[in-house]
Design goal:
Layout: E1 6-17, E2 20-31, E3 35-39, H1 46-53, E4 61-66, H2 71-79, E5 82-85, H3 97-107, H4 112-125, H5 141-152, E6 159-163, H6 171-186, E7 190-195, H7 198-204, E8 207-212, E9 215-220, H8 222-229, E10 233-238, H9 247-250, E11 257-261, E12 264-269, H10 272-281, E13 288-293, H11 296-304
Parallel strand pairs: 3-7, 3-8, 5-6, 6-7
Antiparallel strand pairs: 1-2, 1-4, 8-9, 10-12, 10-13, 11-12
Helix pairs in contact: 3-4, 5-6, 8-11
InterPro entries: AAA+_ATPase, ABC_transporter-like_ATP-bd, ABC_transporter-like_CS, ABC_transporter_ATP-binding, P-loop_NTPase
Family: Belongs to the ABC transporter superfamily.
Membrane topology: Peripheral membrane protein
Amino acid sequence: MEGNGALVRARGLIKKFGDFEAVRGIDLDVRRGEAFGFLGPNGAGKSSTMRMIACNSPRSGGELSVLGMDPDRDGPAIRARLGVVPQLDNLDTELTVRQNLQIYGRYFGMPRAVVREKATELLDFAQLTERADDEVDPLSGGMKRRLTIARSLINDPELLLLDEPTTGLDPQARHLLWDRLFRLKHSGVTLIVTTHYMDEAEQLCDRLVVMDGGKIVAEGSPSELIAEYSSKEVLELRFTPGDQDGVESTVDGLADRVEVLPDRLLLYTSNGEAALEAAHGRGVRPLSSLVRRSTLEDVFLRLTGRTLVD
């Protein structure tokens, strides 16, 4: 049985590579039907956690249950009910788009007629029907990514693991991929996504954990995390790098919190326009200014003291 209604349950989960501890005793629960995210920079431990959930990497310590089973003991049974989208596409570029789906389906022992029908359905889902008989190599990056996701669905998985699903894609391709993932979620597939894009996490995830240095530093819905760790608005004052030195003391008291970055100041406040007017009144003259809403990147900056970058 799935403990406490969770498809994935971890307690004190640890992953070591020699003396290096990549995942340092994390607890998490992923509920059926939700989109759950791991947000953090490269090296935070996100992919190591995903590989343990996917039964591709044994845990070094702690407890882990996936679909109510133990990955150490029940790896093949778990993998039969999972879909996995790796960080890098690993399609067979010499085969056609359709053949990539059909041959992968045969790995699961599905009858040929069922595989053919499922492949046709997934080609439509991925908007690749017109490219079905083309080889994979000439496809765009977005098309290859959609094909990789379609292939991961050939066995009707209950749980789909996506590791950095839109890295390297242009904005249009990312939004098309998000639309496909929304459709999957609404059809009842549980999604676990790792990303270092805060807009992706806000768009896709019902709940997420922020990871840094192998640990979970915060957990909640995107709106809950922003409400807890940031302010309603952020005033960005941009300067030529170095020119913002000394301005921090000038704007003291104009915001709940001020972050100093190499080319700007971030003023966290409930009213950005009022803070900007007050800063101008104190003689602050930035190159440019911007009032925006808080994002998950502001949450990460608050929690870790640095921005969320590659």
